[in-house]
Amino acid sequence: MSCPYARELNGEDPNAERCLGDFKGINYTNYLQLHGILGSQNCITSAHDEHLFIVVHQAYELWFKQMIYEIDSVRALFNEEEVNEHKMLEIIKRMQRVVLILKLCVDQFVILETMTPLDFMEFRDYLSPASGFQSFQFRLLENKLGLKSESRVRYKQETYKKVFGDDPEILEAIKQSEEEPSLQVLLSRWLERTPGLEEEGFNFWLKYKIAVDTTQEEKRREAEAEKVEHMKTHMMAQYKRRQELFDSIFDVKVHNALVARGERRLSHRGLQGALMISFYRENPRFNQPHQLLNLLMDVDSLITKWRYNHVMMVQRMIGSQLLGTGGSSGYQYLRSTLSDRYKVFIDLFNLSTFLLPRNSVPPLDRQMKSRLSTMGEPDSEERRGKVVWSRPRSEPGFVSSDSPCPMDNVDNGEEKVSSDSDLEKSLEDSIERSCEASM
Ligand code: HEM
């Protein structure tokens, strides 16, 4: 590949010896607008370390910009009518990029930490009231990922937007980032469409409930049969705790109450989709979704690590008693942002609470196995990976398409169903009917 800055010489002898300066048109400095960027380190004191302080902040802001760019593009891909496997690959690639940038951001603090607190003291007082609290890009990043206003720690009983009071452009961008569907919201909607959740089809949730009830019943019996009293008490307590947790996911009202309190973020059905992907991740169609869920947890973990490294650096520079230049309690305020309320993909971390031992996981039936496999009849649209998760017509923002969803064909029984799977289906139906009767 040729260098992007190279250009044809206008009508000059192509064999003549050339040096870079001979090329007309775009050049490195102009293309990257380096005069602007490199002319923007305007120190306000003569303190030597102020230059580093500015460069580090600017580098962070550039990385914030790139992450916002990637997240916006991923949100757009998720917001389309269909999320096929090609798009999933692109989504994963971009989220991997975000994860790597975040890793860099976490590590970058060590460079600023070469500045001692005494060096910092030389110019700190001149910075007030400027503060990282006014980083609007950091707020955009948080909002676009899905941090909700009500989950934020209030700063001097004020909204975080107060610091942008006199800048209508920033305020508008922040308002938009709060109103548009965040990555978390789009993820939840996408998970709701996980193949296998359909009540009239595989009905994962019902099968999972039966498996949980059976496992829990075994645990209760084991605890009751225990002869050593203190062991029995411990096992019974564990059984009851797990039962409470399971009840909280099976009872939609409890789930929604936890969502309202900010302790869960996915919709009830979205949570079912995420759990299903975790259980059956080794099936080809769930490989990429599972990878994505892991990347989203990485994003949350890395932002928490960023917050942690930042607050450690703040303590090292100004201790835990001084107020921040932005007027907050400084270290104390920043420490409170390390809470789980700031994790937008918290449900994905908590999925492990609801996992079952491998031998208790409901087996996939033939039809479901074939839906989640990448092999099959070559002329089937679904097999070619054209469409996986299609948006239902009832979903907000759905762009109508007249072509039916190939997944619907599978559910409508257009796929060849062998006599074996007919038998399995009728057995499942009878199990489901008896379960419904006992619920
Ligand atoms: C000597 C280095 C630093 C010190 C002492 C420091 C101090 C602080 C303090 C005290 C706050 C709380 C708000 C306030 O009252 O000012 C804050 C917030 C913040 N700082 Fe820094 N900071 C430093 C470096 C950085 C760097 C390199 C970045 C990178 C962009 C950064 C980004 C932020 C952000 C985004 C917030 C808002 C965090 C939130 O509200 O959750 N800071 N900083």
TrEMBL record:
Cofactor note: Binds 1 heme group per subunit.
Entry cofactors: heme
Function: Heme-dependent dioxygenase that catalyzes the oxidative cleavage of the L-tryptophan (L-Trp) pyrrole ring and converts L-tryptophan to N-formyl-L-kynurenine. Catalyzes the oxidative cleavage of the indole moiety.
Family in the record: Belongs to the tryptophan 2,3-dioxygenase family.
Name of encoding gene: v
Region (Disordered) location: 370-439
Organism expressing this protein natively: Chionoecetes opilio (Atlantic snow crab)
Protein name: Tryptophan 2,3-dioxygenase
Keyword Chloroplast recorded: no
Pfam families associated with the record: Trp_dioxygenase
